[in-house]
Amino acid sequence: MPFRSLVAVLLGGLFAPVALAVDNYKLCPESTPDADTPRGTITQHEFNDSKIFPETSRKYWVYVPKQYDGTTPASVMVFQDGQWYQDPKGGWRVPAVFDVLIHKKELPPMIGIFVDPGVFPKQLDKNGKPTQNRSFEYDTLSDQYARFLESEILPEVGKIYKLRGDSAGRAICGISSGGICAFTAAWERPQLFSKVLSHVGSFTNIRGGDVYPGKIRKTAVKPIRCYLQDGSGDLDNVHGSWPLANQQMAAALNSMKYDYKFAYGDGGHNSKHGAAVMAESLRWLWRDWEKDLPKAK
User: Fold this and answer.
1) How many domains are there within the chain?
2) Is 3 domain-assigned?
3) Is 52:147 a contact under the CB 8 Å cutoff?
């Protein structure tokens, strides 16, 4: 039994009945805006011309807040596995949370870019579906994915919307392999992304990601703010222990005095805990956004 649940049993026996709710997280209240909250728009797009990941095709979605005026460059947040994060009926409902927090001025007017991993349309798997490129794109420790965003996706979105070019105005988020991908993008390009949100991040040995705690401890501190989320019920398999890996990441960030926060619960390898703390994590990552606005020229 997880320690937290054991404590709940003991305290419950002494004072009051306590439900043994393991991984029983609920969507944050901000995921359901009230009728007076201005709602942003979401548009779906395809990108089939990557030079960084040749022969891949992918979908992506762009969220634009009602407060975007078309002239002032907007802050940007990129999400890996974009379909999951932007789906209004799914387990994350990030655009709805954006609507609420932007309306409350707890986030800047911010454009969300929700990018799916690439597939190879001409290479079919045994089920006749396009072969996935997700693990290669997300788990590889290199600047390749950061370059893909920097030279391909951000300019593509920038053809339509004015985006901030400074790292203080940019964040990146992902779950599982998308979580380590978010960290890698900021680690390799801190001048591109200064804020990282990782949900049950795969800091394990899928493609060598277990080296990060050691790299963090032996590398000069980079200008990255990092919010990690994981749970004691996360995966433990041939690649490693996800809970242990995330605890080691948090310890390394703490040792090097990074600006970080670690939300550790009793959840498994899913979106439940991350979605429950989505509003909290976004507020924390962007807490000083007004101070970081570019100075008018």
Assistant:
1) 1
2) no
3) yes
120-133 exposure pattern, b = at least 16 Cβ within 10 A, e = fewer: beeeeeeeeeeeeb
Domain with 75 in it: what CATH number?
3.40.50.1820
- Two tokens, residue 240: 């490693």
Helix intervals (H) in the chain: 3-14, 82-86, 94-103, 134-139, 144-148, 154-158, 177-188, 212-217, 242-255, 272-276, 278-285
Asked, for residue 292, whether it belongs to a domain, the answer is no
Residue 6 lies in a domain: no
Neighbouring residues of 55: CB distance < 8 A, sequence distance ≥ 6: 120, 122
Map residue 217 onto helix, strand or coil.
helix
Residue 284's CB is within 10 A of a number of other CB atoms, namely: 17
Scanning 27-173, the segments in alpha helix (DSSP H) are 82-86, 94-103, 134-139, 144-148, 154-158
224 found inside a domain: yes
pTM attached to this predicted model: 0.92
Domain boundaries, position 114: 29-285
CB 176 within 8 A of CB 199: yes
pLDDT tens, residue order, the chain (297 aa): 444 443 333 334 443 344 445 899 999 999 999 999 999 999 999 999 999 999 999 999 999 999 999 999 999 999 999 999 999 888 999 999 999 999 999 999 999 999 999 999 999 999 999 999 999 999 999 999 999 999 999 999 999 999 999 999 999 999 999 999 999 999 999 999 999 999 999 999 999 999 999 999 999 999 999 999 999 999 999 999 999 999 999 999 999 999 999 999 999 999 999 999 999 999 999 999 999 998 866
